[in-house]
Design a protein that fits this description.
The complex is a heterotrimer. By secondary structure, chain A is an all-alpha fold. Chain A has ten helices and one strand. By secondary structure, chain B is an alpha/beta fold. The chains are: A mainly alpha, B alpha/beta, C alpha+beta.
Chain lengths: 320, 980, 254
């Protein structure tokens, strides 16, 4: 599949945004919630920014962005529609939370009503987190449900999307906490490293799978012949590239792909892991380490996402 | 935050319930909101309501397609005076509604950016593309001044050569009125071998003069055809045959197109079909599967041939005092007039003539030849690449079909002898052949052997066999001799006859007293005696090299001679720009050309007469030329202007008629010197070739109630328009088969002016005319063959068809040039025209050299590798593609995909220029070496047919393959036109 | 609507006979032409006269060589939308622009509501959808829905453009839900194939596979065994082929 930058940036940025949003939202249910409402607000705003930038990228992929609102209508069957709808819905609790926290930060409500509002924060935060997680789940499902692309139609596709989004969120969360001089619970850091390396493991399993995956149909079956007939191209249907070949027939050289995997592994999984572990032992390095970790992760994920597309073979390539 | 905006919009939409939509679009209602139709709503399923009856036209006009020469009927949908849609005309006999890939893309041809806009005069050197637009009056005045000078000095110095022309009845007549013998049309470089072999054998031919009896045939053999002129009819027929389960056997070195769907593909080695067909004959004779009745009735198999060794008249037909051929009646034991057909005429044996000479039935000689070991399946199998068992089996299949599946049609008919029959009985084996046979230097003979095969099986013009299309059959050969002898050409005078015709004896040749050619292309000279269509491919070479003489003006029409229809393009381009050192002028001083598009040849012409497209003009597809008849009907057709030209272009035929009038050519002016015809439509309507015979056969006579023959009818074209642009004149039902010997047919055909006499048309298995040439080479017939040509004439002029290796191959060292290189027509492209078509060029815009997979592996080649392909004259650099369905010693490519940079209105980076190539660059105009002191052209020694497919090449991997461009690459010839 | 109808009244589709398709591209350009008659929404072309000419076609024909271990064949393969019964191109569509018609099962794109997200083209295993980036919408074979019911056309012409054009009649149009229709009968008889059936899209169109064209050596020798049947003559020992033939001639003539 052709690695379209609009979609790569969309999935990476909004993935990170939803991850952060999920953490921020879900921490409201726990004692891990930083005491600083300002910090929470900043993280919330940042997550919304990432999400929105991502979504904006995604609309550049559309032929008719002005009609994008229509994409919400088919939630009954379409994961893309569900993703769009959830993305939209997520804004509701997130913005509500935003309003509340802003109010709390600027203390524009009477202390009493602030207290009252605080009772809702956990509820709204929870909903917000759930929405964010679900959105990412839908994103994963868009790809995972395509039978035409066996590299995606795999049980790990969605979990990996999901994990990577959460991990991106966690790293950003750690970064902001440490920048704002909040000591991040080591348990959280270790958990993040664990999640990160779990994602790495899954990604390795995935790459191994991609290297082996085959179409469930043969070229012969694609043209209606008996399965084992050897079919070779004689005359192409057209001699210069067309949409199908550009979009679906993208071919990445094995050597190039391996280099990128190597880069993605180091940038997204190994370096951030090391940075965080160093941060655990030397907490003063945490701000800078988590900053490097987050940057590397994003860069690594861009490579990872590029590969996700570039290495996925669409069944119509059988015709070409 | 765009989603907020979306949210707002959703609300707005819900509020107003309706989004405003563009009503003339396909989908009328907004899906999200429409209720669909009531029923759907009931089922709870919503879908948009769409407009199911959209209107596509203001008006529909019928005309005839000319995206290729097949000439299908089309309906053109017009909207706002623009062409919107073209579909096949269901009511048209040629295509019955279907359309091919090119036909449906006709719109893009019509709106091509390569179309010429106005007459052009060359201002830069030839090949520079520098032109100046001039007015029509200026153009015609200039052309007239050039032409009239030549006509008044030596009309021979003007050659009118027309390529894809379908108005040869006009152009040929024009040339003879001008007074030049130098006229030819596309047949010479195309398939004159087929035309000549057929017309010299049975008065018809493959090509467009006949077709298999598609409805009744039980076995179909297709020889060397990729697409043919009958594009759609053949496809339709193949579809039909497949449905009926009729076996289709394709003989072709390459398995594509028709070969792909055939029941059997015989991947023959190029140039050996004659041998293969000969082996089939061998096998039929061995199996005694020959239709003896048929041979006796319809052929000259029984004619006695003088065979006393050393006799002056050796090999001529024994005749009685009246000139009737003699046969030997075995019942009466006497010599009889062979034309008084009887089943008692001997087919073998030796008989003594009154003058003491010995004579033997010609069939005996034929049987002798084909039963020789040379033609046994075993001995041909290595040369042809076809297994002996396969040959044996195919011969058996042919015999079984012919003799066990007789087709009978109940119908009373009378043969020419007056014998009544109650049914037509046929042998349902049919064949069709084209350029795979003809484009070889042994094509005339190979094609004749295929005709032998048909005739021995009794399968010509019978139910299920190969059928003539009126106006064929004609006399063997047609009773028309070429004009252009020394005394025929005089300054300021027309020639006494048509430039093209058929030769029956050395005395018909157009040669001077020394035996030198009188035509610029050497047609009808000792180089190519039977050249029924001229040697179009030689005109530039001969004129530029002043052999046999120089030309003052070359007038070309609709032939891309600066590119894909010439051999050896580098040399051709040299010839077009060659300077005559004596005059300092171009060796071909003037070139006038009519094209509709900016083709490669434009850049080399001095004066361009821009033509209209096929949708803008009148054309006549006449019975005098190459009609669209069917076996059961004589059919002619027209094209009519369905849209007006939007630029300063004129139909070439109209221009030619005006030029004729300006030159004062007889037949083109009235007594007072005024133009006789206002335009081509006027000419079509009013010109009479013979008594009551004109361009079109339909609705003749003042009131349009006469058929075939009658005075001009001023409403004729209107009547054609009303009748889907064609006229069909059904052959009477008792005249539909055995036309060559069917009294009703012969009478009917004579009444239509197709033939001059009702004498039967006897198939000439034995060709006496060829023997006369041979005798002449032996010094026994007048005029004698000049010494220079004796060897060639005696080697190739054999009265009985035979196979010999193609000339280039036999002259080259077989080791080095190991591969046969041939081309095929892509079904969706027409020669050079297709590449300007925005739709077609998406399908093909570059070509590769295809090679057998095994050979590729041996040469360490992979798909897309760059290779060097060399012939004895040049080298081409291109990419290779491996395949299985390709004879192992053959390589091939699609014809005419490669283009010259700058032509056809294409951007200079177009793949056609950079990754396309022509085999023409490698095909030599002349044979590799002189023979007997004469350098012959690369053509069939009998007909002069261009031997495109004799090419032999050597192949090796290119040295470097980085960023390659196909070669040779010629400098761009982009148009640089000063507008008025 | 992205939802699929619970069933369709008809299953209109094409039956494509690979045994007789000669690869002429008649269906390709006639489809292009018909579907470009609408000035507002023609099938776009890009770089028409340039380096990389490209454009939207709803039907394309590929040429292949096949080898089943016994013999090799050339096969032409026209590819257009198969109007699947379980078209995921429809169910993935987020806007509902893609839908399957309830009355005849034709799968269409609503050009008014398509946002050009391209997901449907990813979901189609047959490469039947092409994105028109000039118009920003997805294009696909409409089964000529604007012809087959078009009252401006004569009855006989109410068929898909490609079907009418196909010179060999390798394309038939009809209702696969009616077991008595030509397409159903022929598909039944010749073993019509639903392409890549295991993907679960349930294509409506069927392809008739090319017949095996291999001639076995047994067939060769069987025919050879029959050879003498045309001869009325007992093989006369020692005679040459020519003598044999002439004596047969004598028999025939006397
Ligand atoms: N689409 C399309 N149609 C056309 C044309 C076009 O350009 N495009 N051109 C028109 C013209 S001008 C003509 S003359 C006709 C020609 O129509 P065809 O006769 O079909 O001409 P070619 O394409 O030259 O095909 C020749 C075939 O013969 C095969 N062949 C070559 N050498 C041999 C041989 O030695 N033996 C055998 N058995 N086969 C051999 C080649 O593989 C090829 O398949 O087509 C006409 N129709
Ligand atoms: N290597 C190789 N070479 C071959 C062949 C081959 O098989 N292999 N085939 C040979 C054969 S059989 C043939 S017939 C020739 C064909 O070769 P050509 O006769 O040269 O055929 P085209 O390339 O079609 O060129 C005809 C010219 O007519 C122009 N034209 C098109 N429409 C019109 C119109 O309406 N009016 C006018 N005035 N001009 C128009 C086109 O623009 C083009 O320049 O090629 C021959 N050359
Ligand atoms: S075969 Fe095609 S291009 Fe040729 S006349 Fe017929 S429709 Fe036109
Ligand atoms: S072929 Fe493709 S586009 Fe057509 S219905 Fe099936 S899945 Fe959809
Ligand atoms: S491109 Fe259009 S039709 Fe396809 S899924 Fe997207 S909105 Fe639906
Ligand atoms: S049915 Fe119509 S839209 Fe579909 S491929 Fe045929 S012509 Fe094209
Ligand atoms: S028009 Fe018919 S024969 Fe030609 S490519 Fe299409 S399906 Fe095949
Ligand atoms: Mo030709």
């Amino acid at each position: 599949m052709s690695p379209a930058y609009s979609i790569i940036f969309f999935t990476v940025f909004s993935g990170a945004g939803y991850g952060l949003l999920a953490i921020v939202g879900l921490t409201t249910l726990t004692s891990l919630l930083p005491d600083s409402t300002l910090l929470n607000l900043i993280m919330l705003i940042l997550s919304l920014l990432l999400i929105s930038v991502g979504l904006l990228f995604s609309t550049t992929h559309l032929g008719h962005p002005e009609r994008a609102w229509r994409a919400m209508s088919q939630w009954k069957t379409s994961w893309l529609s569900r993703e769009g709808l959830l993305a939209l819905i997520t804004y509701v609790p997130a913005l509500l939370l935003c309003v509340i926290w802003t109010a709390m930060v600027i203390q524009s409500f009477s202390p009493q009503s602030i207290n009252e509002l605080e009772n809702y924060v956990a509820l709204i935060g929870g909903v917000c987190g759930l929405c964010a997680i679900s959105t990412v789940f839908c994103t994963g499902q868009i790809y995972a449900s395509l039978k035409t692309i066996p590299a995606w139609n795999y049980f790990l596709t969605t979990p990996i999307f999901f994990l990577l989004s959460i991990v991106s969120g966690l790293l950003l969360w750690i970064f902001f906490n440490s920048v704002f001089s909040y000591k991040v619970n080591n348990f959280v850091v270790l958990f993040s490293v664990f999640m990160l390396e779990a994602a790495f493991l899954l990604k390795c399993v995935y790459w191994n799978f991609v290297d082996q995956v085959k179409f469930s149909v043969t070229k012969a079956e694609a043209i209606g012949l008996e399965k084992n007939t050897i079919v070779q191209n004689l005359e192409p249907a057209h001699q210069t590239q067309n949409y199908l070949m550009r979009e679906m027939g993208y071919n990445v050289a094995r050597k190039h792909a391996l280099k990128l995997r190597w880069f993605a592994s180091w940038a997204a999984f190994i370096i951030p892991g090391i940075c965080l572990l160093v941060g655990v032992t030397h907490s003063s390095y945490m701000p800078i380490n988590s900053f490097i970790a987050s940057l590397c992760l994003i860069a690594g994920l861009i490579a990872e996402r590029w590969l996700f597309f570039a290495e996925a073979k669409h069944v119509i390539t059988l015709y070409y | 935050m765009c989603y907020f905006w979306f949210l707002v919009k959703i609300h707005l939409v819900i509020l107003f319930k309706q989004e405003k939509l563009n009503s003339n679009r396909l989908i009328k209602n907004d899906l999200a909101l429409s209720e669909g139709n009531a029923e759907m709503a009931k089922a709870g399923y919503k879908q948009p309501e769409i407009e199911l009856s959209k209107s596509i036209s203001d008006e529909i006009k019928t005309t005839t397609c000319y995206m290729c020469a097949c000439r299908c009927g089309i309906k053109v949908y017009l909207k706002d005076n623009k062409v919107k849609y073209i579909e096949g005309n269901r009511d048209h006999p040629v295509n019955k509604g279907v359309l091919c890939g090119k036909g449906a893309a006709g719109i893009m041809q019509h709106y091509s950016p390569a179309r010429l806009k106005a007459p052009l005069k060359r201002v830069g050197p030839r090949g520079s593309g520098e032109f100046e637009e001039i007015s029509w009056d200026e153009a015609l005045t200039l052309a007239t001044s050039w032409l009239s000078e030549i006509r008044n000095n030596d009309p021979r110095k003007m050659a009118l050569f027309t390529g894809r022309d379908q108005s040869q009845a006009l152009t040929g007549w024009w040339a003879s009125q001008f007074g030049t013998p130098n006229f030819a049309a596309h047949g010479g470089f195309c398939s004159v071998n087929m035309a000549a072999a057929g017309l010299h054998t049975f008065g018809g031919s493959f090509w467009e003069f006949g077709e298999p009896d598609w409805d009744l045939t039980e076995y179909f053999m297709l020889w060397g055809v990729a697409e043919d002129h009958a594009s759609n009819p053949i496809k339709k027929a193949i579809g039909k045959l497949k449905k009926r389960g009729v076996k289709i056997t394709v003989i072709n070195p390459i398995r594509t197109g028709y070969g792909a769907v055939a029941d059997e593909w015989i991947g023959i080695k190029p140039g050996t079909d004659g041998l293969f067909a000969g082996a089939l004959i061998h096998q039929l004779l061995v199996n005694q599967a020959v239709d003896i009745d048929y041979l006796q009735r319809y052929t000259n198999a029984t004619w006695l041939v003088i065979n006393s060794p050393g006799a002056e008249d050796l090999g001529l037909i024994a005749r009685d005092d009246e000139g009737n051929p003699l046969a030997y009646d075995i019942v009466e034991s006497s010599l009889v007039n062979a034309n008084q057909k009887s089943s008692n005429h001997a087919l073998h044996g030796e008989y003594t003539l009154p003058n003491g000479r010995n004579a033997t039935p010609s069939f005996s000689l034929i049987a002798n030849r084909f039963l020789s070991e040379e033609y046994s399946p075993k001995s041909v199998s290595i040369k042809t690449g076809v297994a002996a068992e396969t040959i044996i089996r195919i011969a058996d299949e042919l015999a079984k079909t012919a003799f066990e599946k007789e087709r009978r049609i109940e119908q009373e008919w009378t043969d020419w002898n007056g014998v009544q029959h109650s049914e037509f009985i046929g042998r349902p084996v049919s064949m069709h052949a084209m350029r795979g046979i003809s484009a070889h230097s042994n094509g005339f003979n190979s094609c004749r052997i295929i005709h032998y095969l048909q005739i021995l099986l009794g399968a010509i013009d019978c139910p299920g066999g190969f059928r003539y299309k009126p106006p064929f059959p004609k006399a063997v050969p047609p009773a028309l001799r070429p004009a252009g002898k020394l005394e025929d050409v005089r300054p300021g005078e027309p020639m006494p006859g048509a430039p093209l015709g058929f030769v029956t004896s050395p005395s018909d040749l157009l040669v001077d007293h020394e035996g030198n050619a009188l035509r610029i292309d050497n047609a009808y000279s000792w180089e190519a005696p039977f050249s029924a269509h001229g040697l179009m491919h030689m005109v530039i070479h001969n004129a530029a090299n002043q052999k046999p003489y120089n030309l003052e003006l070359l007038f070309l029409y609709m032939a891309n001679m600066g590119w894909n229809s010439s051999m050896d393009i580098p040399e051709t381009l040299n010839n077009l720009t060659k300077i005559n050192p004596e005059t300092g002028e171009y060796a071909i001083p003037r070139i006038i050309y009519s094209d509709a598009y900016y083709s490669e040849t434009i850049a080399y012409a001095d004066l361009i007469l821009p033509d209209t497209t096929y949708l803008e003009r009148w054309d006549a597809i006449s019975l005098l030329d190459r009609p669209i008849s069917e076996p059961n009907a004589a059919i002619d057709a027209i094209r009519n202007p369905v849209v007006k030209p939007d630029r300063d272009v004129r139909p070439f035929q109209t221009v030619l008629i005006e030029l004729g009038a300006r030159l004062g050519l007889p037949g083109m002016i009235n007594n007072d010197g005024s133009p006789k015809y206002t335009d081509y439509a006027d000419y079509i309507t009013n010109h009479e070739r013979g008594n009551g015979i004109g361009t079109l056969a339909g609705w003749r006579g003042e009131d349009g109630d006469q058929v075939g023959v009658g005075s001009p009818n001023q409403d004729q074209l209107k009547r054609y328009q009303e009748n889907n642009c064609f006229f069909s004149n059904a052959v009477p039902s008792n005249a539909r088969y055995f036309k060559h010997a069917n009294r009703s047919y012969l009478k009917w055909a004579k009444s239509q002016g197709f033939i001059n006499s009702t004498k039967p048309i006897i198939f000439e298995l034995y060709n006496e005319a060829l023997q006369k040439f041979r005798l002449s080479a032996d010094g026994k017939f007048e005029p004698k063959v000049p010494r220079l040509h004796q060897k060639r004439i005696s080697s190739y002029f054999d009265p009985i068809a035979f196979w010999y290796p193609t000339l280039e191959e036999s002259k080259l060292n077989g080791e080095r040039y190991r591969f046969h290189a041939i081309s095929q027509r892509p079904m969706h492209m027409y020669h050079s025209w297709g590449s300007q078509n925005a739709w077609l060029r998406q399908i093909s815009n570059s070509n590769k050299l295809y090679m057998n997979r095994k050979r590729g592996a041996e040469l360490d080649l992979k798909d897309d590798d760059w290779i060097e392909v060399s012939s004895h004259i040049g080298k081409v650099l291109c990419q290779v593609k491996l395949m299985s369905g390709c004879q192992i010693d053959t390589v091939w490519t699609w014809n005419a995909i490669g283009k010259r940079a700058g032509a056809w209105g294409l951007n200079k980076k177009s793949p056609e220029f950079r990754k396309g190539f022509l085999l023409n660059h490698l095909i030599s105009t002349l044979l590799p070496e002189k023979e007997g002191g004469f350098h012959y052209s690369n053509s069939d020694p009998i007909t002069g047919q261009a031997a495109w497919y004799d090419l032999k090449v050597h192949i090796q991997k290119a040295k470097s393959s980085n960023n390659q461009r196909s070669e040779p690459y010629f400098l761009p010839i982009a148009a640089n036109i000063k507008r008025k | 609507m992205t939802d699929l109808p619970s069933g369709t009244d008809k299953k209109l589709g094409l039956l494509i006979d690979l045994d007789i398709c000669v690869g002429c591209h008649g269906c390709v350009t006639s489809c292009k032409e018909w579907n470009s008659t609408d000035d507002n929404l023609p099938l776009s072309d890009f770089d028409s006269y340039g380096e990389a000419p490209d454009g939207i076609f709803l039907n394309r024909v590929h040429g292949y060589e096949t080898d089943d271990g016994i013999s090799s064949q050339t096969v032409h393969f026209p590819r257009s939308c198969l109007h699947c019964e379980q078209p995921e191109c429809v169910t993935v569509c987020p806007t509902g622009a893609s839908y399957k018609r309830q009355e005849d099962g034709i799968v269409l794109v609503n050009p008014e509501t398509c946002i050009g997200c391209k997901l449907c083209s990813w979901a189609c295993p047959y490469g039947a959808r092409e994105y028109d980036h000039k118009q920003g919408i997805m294009k696909k074979c409409t089964l000529c829905v604007d012809r087959i019911y078009n009252e401006e056309l004569e009855e006989e012409d109410r068929k898909p453009a490609c079907v009418l054009a196909c010179p060999t009649s390798a394309r038939l149009f009809g209702d696969f839900s009616d077991p008595q229709s030509d397409v159903s009968i022929l598909s039944e008889k010749r073993g019509g194939v639903a392409l890549m059936d295991n993907l679960g899209y349930k294509p409506v169109n069927r392809y008739l596979p090319p017949r095996k064209k291999h001639i076995t050596s047994e067939q060769n020798s069987k025919n050879n065994a029959n050879l003498q049947r045309f001869s009325d003559l007992k093989p006369s020992n020692g005679n040459s082929k020519l003598e044999n033939f002439f004596s047969w001639l004598d028999q025939k003539l006397s």
